[in-house]
Amino acid sequence: DVAWKNLADSGFPDLILWIQAAAKDRPWMDLTRVGVVGTSAGGQNAASAVMRFGDFYHAAVADCGCHDNRMDKVWWNELWMGNPVDESYARNSNVTAAKDLRGKLFLMVGEADTNVDPASTQQVVDALIRAGKDFEHLVAPNVGHGVLGTPYGQRRMAEFFLRHLGGPK
Question: What pLDDT score does 168 carry?
Fold first, then answer.
């Protein structure tokens, strides 16, 4: 019920509370360095974390995200967003939220993705540029749905998080 026409929520309000509660008796958890990563719908969620919850999430890797449900496969979107397309689609779009980016964001996309159209990521790239936001972007040639499934994608993700969140303390 929470997710219906509300994919931008992604459960983050509850996750943030859980992480904050867990950190109270786990001194190794550093809440000044919280990152998130996801692929596909998880990529949409990861980008949303630093756009909508950037006061908590500091860095995100968004891999092959379906960032705007107005352009992804109809059957999947209708399960969560309903039909017809209404204002909730724009409200939940990372294209619409790009102007609110507050954390570090690395957008990855496979140029041969046949699951989520790479244009979905490119729309976010365009919106971020128009909003004057800094971000990182990788288009992986000859890669389908899931750049993080490649050794190169894994290395780039690790380097991104080390650069922006630091290593173990």
Answer: 77
